Amino acid sequence: MILHSADTLSKKIEEAIQSISFDLKPASLFEPISYTLSVGGKRVRPLLALLATDMFGKEVDLSLKPAIGIEIFHNFTLLHDDLMDNSDMRRGMPAVHKKWDTNTAILSGDAMLIESYKYVSSV
Q1: Please, what is the angle between helix 102-120 and helix 27-38, to 10°?
Q2: DSSP β-bridge partners for residue 89
C-alpha cells in the first residue's frame, strides 16, 4: 500500500484544477467559472476524498475526477452564497456578481453544478 502525503495530493489536486479548460461558449458564462476556481482555497474536500482513497489502498488517480467534482460543487455553493449575502469579496478578489453581474453569477453557478455532477459521476 502506497500512502501519499497531503502535500503531494494537494499538488495533484491543484494541477488538476488548473488544467480544467472551460473554453465553452458563451465565454460570458464560463469565464466566471474559471475565475472562481482560479482564486484558490484550501481544497479540503478533494484532499479528504483522495486521502480516504489512499488510506483504503485504492488508486488515487481514479478518484481524482470525482474529488475535483466535489471542489467544483463546493465553489458553486460559494458563488451562490456570495450573491445571497451580497458579499463584495471572495478570497481577497471581487465576488463573481460584483466582477460581472447577478445573472451571470446565477447562471455560472448553475453551470458549475452541472459540471460538478459530470466529474463526480465519472467513476
Answers
A1: 70
A2: 94
The dihedral formed by the CA atoms of 14, 37, 89 and 104, expressed in degrees to the nearest 10: 180
Strand partners, 94: 89
* Full pLDDT tens readout for the chain, 123 residues: 678 999 999 999 999 999 998 877 898 999 999 999 999 899 999 999 999 999 999 999 999 999 999 999 999 999 999 999 999 999 999 999 999 999 999 999 999 999 999 999 988
Q: What is the Cα–Cα distance from 77 to 83, expressed in whole angstroms?
A: 10
Between the alpha carbon of residue 68 and those of residues 29, 38, 97, 99, the distances in Å are 20, 13, 23, 24
Please give the domain boundaries of the chain with CATH numbers for all domains: 25-120 (1.10.600.10)
Task: Provide the whole-model pTM.
Answer: 0.94
98's grid cell: 460584483
